[in-house]
Amino acid sequence: xxxxxxxxxxxxxxxxxxxxxxxxxxxxxxxxxxxxxxxxxxxxxxxxxxxxxxxxxxxxxxxxxxxxxxxxxxxxxxxxxxxxxxxxxxxxxxxxxxxxxxxxxxxxxxxxxxxxxxxxxxxxxxxxxxxxx
Length: 133
Fold this sequence. Notes:
single chain; mainly alpha; 2 strands; 70% helix; disordered N terminus
């Protein structure tokens, strides 16, 4: 084969690997939302994540499952966003007065989200290099 077709095959393989990674990222995000909202709609999200994980395990490469780790970062980032005014009591003006809520510090959520995202991306990149080598 020529170098051009090898490059195209490698590019298609790389795109496919990242596609599987993104699919697993969505499964991880769904599971993370399910865990965060376990007292309300969380069970439905966990069931959806489990069904999707079974389908992905049957069809895709197992090494892409690390995307689920990176997916857990998305709910962490959302919790950081929701607590962006914290820590402490945060008051906002609403029609007819004020609404006050207690918020956590967003920093722990940001740190956990960043660590999960970076770890998932790094492990996937290393696994991709090993798979091509």
